[in-house]
Amino acid sequence: MAERWRPETHTFHLPEGEMTITLKDVAILTGMPISGDAIIGPTTKPEGGWGPLIRDRLGFDMPTTTPIQGRGHPPLNAGQVSVTWLVSHIQQEVEINDETPEEQVERYARIYLIGLVGGFLFPDKSNRWIQGIWLDMLTCDWDAIGQKSWGSAVLAGVYRELCTCSKVGAKQAGAAMFILQLWVWEHLPMFAPLDPRPYRRNDDELNFMQNLPYGVK
């Protein structure tokens, strides 16, 4: 599909004509909102570095120079945060239960969001770093986070990466390429895997799936 992508038109050139991923596709396949506030924010490191912001918003200190378990890269690198460090920090903490203070639950919900957005919806090619912009954006007011147009931002990222990886010599692509995979399965069914159990879903499964995005089905 990358080889058939044309950066001039942001469409796939196929023998039958042109096709492209639309905002409607993103909304239906993923359930992400495609209207609301734009995803914008500073991409540079704040004055004083990321440490004070992490301490203030997430409640813990992040080392700046110690490599993670001998893997050779620090938790902070310019304007990026290590995915490995973030995951390991969560795994080291106590399990959340009914008696966990609300403040702690909210703090780890924000850490999860940072990992989800920065590592899954907007990943880099190595899948090792999360852009620091998400630290600031996802530690603000909860309502403000939910009112942003996440679907349109993710689609813009997919478009940009397709433009990059369609060039001669490109070998990798970042962004949320799972959307392209789901889109291909839906619109070009000859590439879609067969459902291994199409007639064996019980009523509970079907009722549960009614409330999930189409891509999950």
From TrEMBL:
<dbReference type="InterPro" id="IPR019557">
    <property type="entry name" value="AminoTfrase-like_pln_mobile"/>
</dbReference>
<feature type="domain" description="Aminotransferase-like plant mobile">
    <location>
        <begin position="1"/>
        <end position="194"/>
    </location>
</feature>
<dbReference type="InterPro" id="IPR044824">
    <property type="entry name" value="MAIN-like"/>
</dbReference>
<dbReference type="GO" id="GO:0010073">
    <property type="term" value="P:meristem maintenance"/>
</dbReference>
<dbReference type="Pfam" id="PF10536">
    <property type="entry name" value="PMD"/>
</dbReference>
<protein>
    <recommendedName>
        <fullName>Aminotransferase-like plant mobile domain-containing protein</fullName>
    </recommendedName>
</protein>
